[in-house]
Specification:
Keywords: ATP-binding, Cytoplasm, Nucleotide-binding, RNA-binding, Thiamine biosynthesis, Transferase, tRNA-binding. The protein is α/β, with parallel strands linked by helices. The protein has helices spanning about 20-35, 60-65, 85-100, 120-135, 190-200, 215-230, 245-255, 260-280, 300-305, 320-330, 335, 345-350, 360-365, 370-380, 390-404; strands at about 5-10, 40-45, 50-55, 70-80, 105-110, 140, 150-155, 160, 165-170, 180-185, 205-210, 235-245, 285, 310-315, 385. The longest helix is centred in the C-terminal third of the chain and has 20 residues, at about 260-280. The chain binds adenosine-5'-triphosphate and magnesium ion. The site of adenosine-5'-triphosphate has 21 residues, from helix 5, strand 11 and helix 12.
Length: about 400
């Protein structure tokens, strides 16, 4: 027998009262985006559940994809069979004999939403339970916490059988908390920060600063690839490339070396904020982590943050590097992050950035530049690309292409 559909149970959103339908529709869209790599799969949603119809698609990879999507509490693959008592008995026997192991207990949980069906749920439990005894004579029934709980649902169009309950990723459906701009470098930390923001339902757009020819196409591709890895948690992500060369050259030209890092970051923050404003974002998300490098002190954070009053979320701020790396490995971004392509910050970074920069000094150096004009030009030069999930086979062929 082959699974025909997967029933998806919603997570935390059930507590959200009248926003419920909005949450459900968002989750449905996200599931459709993520599963778009399987063309035959169709997704529908109602108040209680979402249904993923496999239409012949192999179950296992779809289940792997579903496990990653935020807002799903649990899901159950199920078999669709004809609404006929003898077919039901036969199917129940087939399923039970294929999963039963010596000593296991079971129960049948029948539910009838088609009230015209010849047996009610109590009769169904008894009849199908008897069918199991016929097939496996020594099997024991147990009402509380049985090893196998075989659920039978009689709906209008057909009957559905399921016995597995697979835990989902939890969290909130991406997009239900509003939009945030993720400052995405090619490093280890910012993709993890993005993942954590997605987990709480923030719809992120990835803002990446590139300084060609100082930064290579490889660095840009790396940022693209990292963004693609993040699409598996909630669907498509807008990738925003910002031309940053002019600003980096200007800073290098007009400011002392000790302040290059601070000024660079202040410009990045201003530009990200302007893009946020234009695109209806509510917050900025970045990968800053406290004390990791000389530049990530509280003084430095204060000097950089001073250019905006927009909330800046720093999901990995209190995490140790090893904790961040663990998560990066778990979400499969680590191997991309450690590819050796120079980031725009590494190239212009001084050996010793100031660990306690002063806002007043930063402002004084910026007075030598046309800050507004530089920001406006960078913002008007952005390139926006929609990044979508990718099938495994495509990933392999991409890899081969990279190697050639
Ligand atoms: P990451 O591992 O994310 O690069 P990091 O530990 O290297 O972080 P920094 O290089 O100090 O830390 O950068 C701090 C944060 O600034 C990054 O996490 C990211 O959010 C943002 N940032 C740095 N460089 C870029 C860039 N080229 N484009 C977009 N955001 C950037
Ligand atoms: Mg970095």
């Amino acid at each position: 027998m082959q699974y025909s559909e997967i029933m998806v149970r919603y997570g935390e959103l059930s507590t959200k009262g009248k926003n419920r339908m909005r949450f459900i529709n968002k989750l449905k869209r996200n599931i459709q985006d993520v599963l778009s790599i399987y063309p035959s799969v169709k997704v529908t949603a109602d108040r209680d559940r979402c249904h993923v119809f496999l239409n012949g698609q192999d179950y296992a990879p779809v289940a792997e994809s579903l496990k990653q999507i935020f807002g799903i509490q649990a899901f159950s693959p199920s078999y669709k069979v004809e609404k006929d008592v003898s077919v039901l008995k036969d199917s129940v026997q087939k399923i039970m004999t294929s999963i039963y192991q010596e000593g296991m207990t079971f129960k049948i949980t029948a539910k009838r939403s088609d009230h015209n069906f010849e047996l009610d749920s109590r009769d169904l439990n008894l009849t199908l339970g008897d069918a199991v005894f016929d097939a496996i004579p020594h099997v024991k029934v147990q009402m509380k916490n049985p090893d196998i709980n075989l659920k039978v649902e009689i709906r209008d169009e057909a009957a559905y059988l399921s016995y597995e309950n697979i835990k989902g990723a939890g969290g909130l459906p991406v997009g239900t908390s509003g939009k945030g701009m993720l400052m995405l470098s090619g490093g280890i930390d910012s993709p993890v920060a993005g993942y954590l923001a997605l987990k709480r339902g923030v719809d992120i757009e990835a803002v990446h600063f590139a300084s060609p020819p100082y930064t290579s196409p490889g660095a840009l591709k790396k940022a693209h690839d990292l963004t693609r890895k993040l699409t598996k948690f909630g669907g498509n992500i807008q990738f925003i490339e910002v031309p940053f060369t002019e600003i980096q050259e200007e800073i290098k030209d007009k400011a002392p070396e000790a302040y290059l890092m601070t000024l660079t970051r202040r410009f990045m923050m201003r530009i990200t904020d302007a893009i946020r404003e234009e695109r209806g974002g509510l917050v900025i998300v970045n990968g800053e982590s406290l004390g990791q490098v000389a530049s990530q002190t509280l003084e430095s954070m204060q000097a950089i943050n001073a250019v905006t009053t927009t909330p800046v979320i720093r999901p990995v701020i209190t995490m140790d590097k090893l904790e961040i790396i663990d998560l990066a490995q778990k979400i499969d971004t680590f191997d991309i992050s450690i590819q050796p392509f120079e980031d725009c910050c590494t190239i212009f970074a001084p050996d010793r950035p100031k660990t306690n920069p002063k806002i007043k000094n930063a402002e004084q150096y910026e007075a030598r530049m046309d800050v507004e004009g530089l920001v406006a030009r960078a913002v008007s030069g952005i390139i926006v690309t929609e990044i979508t999930p990718q099938a495994e086979q495509d990933e392999v062929s991409d890899l081969i292409e990279d190697l050639l």
